[in-house]
Amino acid sequence: MKQKNVENKVPIYKLNTTEDIMKYYDEWGNKYDQDMVDWNYTAPKETVNAFKKYALNKNITILDAGCGTGLVGIELKKNKYLNIEGLDLSKKLLDLVPKGYYKKLAIADLNQSIKKNDNFYDAILCVGTFTFGHVKPRALDEFIRITKNKGIISFTVNEGIYEKYGFDKKIKELSNKGYWNMKEFFKSDYIVNKDVNAWLGVAEVIK
Questions:
Q1: What pTM value is reported for the model?
Q2: 11-205 has which fold?
Q3: Which of 115, 122, 128 is nearest to 147 (CA)?
């Protein structure tokens, strides 16, 4: 089956450098949430709905990695998860996060080491961040490092970069080496009105 070309579906997908992407977010920021509504960006709700089946304790410490304007945090709070921290590289997007959803927000490059101790979080969600020009597969190693044994990592990978960036190989490697147990892995709607899908994974960390 011929692979769908999604690279031309969203303008930011065409940018290659972190500098260009951050500049784009600075300009896009005030319109970002409305675009997500207009495009029917379902990823935050889809990912939280999959996550909550395995994260039954509402008091766990959760990292929203690549939190943007807080769309995942809003879904988590709707489901009574209250202990959430957020990281994102864009200060502009972090400034737009509504108050009262996150305990902490910080600027961080997820392509670099995360400044947290091993086994710090009970769970990590990473939604919409594994996409064109953004975060590479190595971040999954960091997520496992900072997640506790039996913690949950729930994430999306844009279909257009799944093989191109090597996420297919990294996900398989982490399973084969016994670093995590994949509970669910399926093709999600992601951005409905742009006809862009994503792979959605829910994994339990093994240590």
A1: 0.96
A2: Rossmann fold (3.40.50)
A3: 122
